[in-house]
Amino acid sequence: SAGQDAATEFFEVDLQEELHICGISMQGRIPITGAWEQTRELLKRAFGDRPLPSGEPLPSIDRIYVRPPVRFVHDVASSFVREFGVFQGAFTDDQLDFACLTTKDLKLAFFQKLVDCASSVDGVDHLQLSATDILKGENTVETGRLLQLLAYLGLGKSDRSGQVTGGLADFRTHWTTSYSLDVHVGGVWESICKPDGSPMMFDGNVDGSTAHTTMLASFSARRIRVKPQEWHLHPALR
User: Fold this and answer.
1) Phi/psi at 81 (5° precision)
2) SS (H, E, C) the chain
């Protein structure tokens, strides 16, 4: 995903050796996947070295993210509410204090409200998740999507790294709809052009997940640059 949403940006591919190129296949970007590795990286970016409400640092152990424990989900959620202002005003102080959630019903009420708030965010596919799933440690991919959404919302309100710009902090799916190509030939960059000398525009994606392949007149190059020209929300490709 691009940093500034500008048509001057590009994605450069170095093939390590000169090869014959006859086509390009590309997809958009789906920021919220539920993959546990992504959950860990997003939370690390958001929290840095800050401790969780439990006083513990953000864990690095795989199993915490593969099957998020109830206390961990509450710690993460309450941190984003209190420190980042996510879903501000939706929860009481008692609900944000895990020590006050002394019964199953109180825990269910907190997590159901959390899921409802997350599902109401514009641009997010509805979470297929219930409070009971979180308490039982079930449907963990959807729990991962919930945690990832919280991270993106928090990063959008307060970028602690100073590096999250453009589409990188946007949780909505985005993709490139048209692009041009530059190739590195004889030590210089040249655009693939139409007969009139203007850069040729290629069709991109129509959604974030479907791969789109463009067949090209074969040429040889080691390095190419894909230059998004039009996009949905933000220029993004993979």
Assistant:
1) -70, -50
2) CCCCCCCCCCEEEEEEEEEEEEEEEECCECCCCCCHHHHHHHHHHHHCCCCCCCCCCCCCCHHHHHCCCHHHHHHHHHHHHHHHCCCCCCCCCCCCCHHHCCCHHHHHHHHHHHHHHHHCCCCCCCCCCCHHHHHHCCCHHHHHHHHHHHHHHHHHHCCCCCCCCHHHHCCCCEEEEEEEEEEEECCEEEECECCCCCECCEECCCCCCCCEEEEEEEEEEEEEEEEEEEEECCCCCC
Q: Could you list the pLDDT tens digit for every one of the 238 residues in the chain?
A: 555 688 888 999 999 999 999 999 999 988 899 999 999 999 999 998 889 988 889 999 999 999 999 999 999 999 999 999 999 999 999 999 999 999 999 999 999 999 999 999 988 888 999 999 999 999 999 999 999 999 999 988 755 444 445 567 788 899 999 999 999 988 899 999 999 999 999 999 999 999 999 999 998 999 999 999 999 999 988 8
Task: List the one residue out of 137, 136, 127 whose CA is nearest residue 67.
Answer: 137
Question: 185 φ, ψ to 5°?
Answer: -130, 125
- Closest by CA position to 36, among listed 5, 71, 89, 73: 73
Q: Which residues pair with 182 in a beta bridge?
A: 191, 225
**Reported pTM:** 0.81
The tokens describing 84, both together, are 């980042």
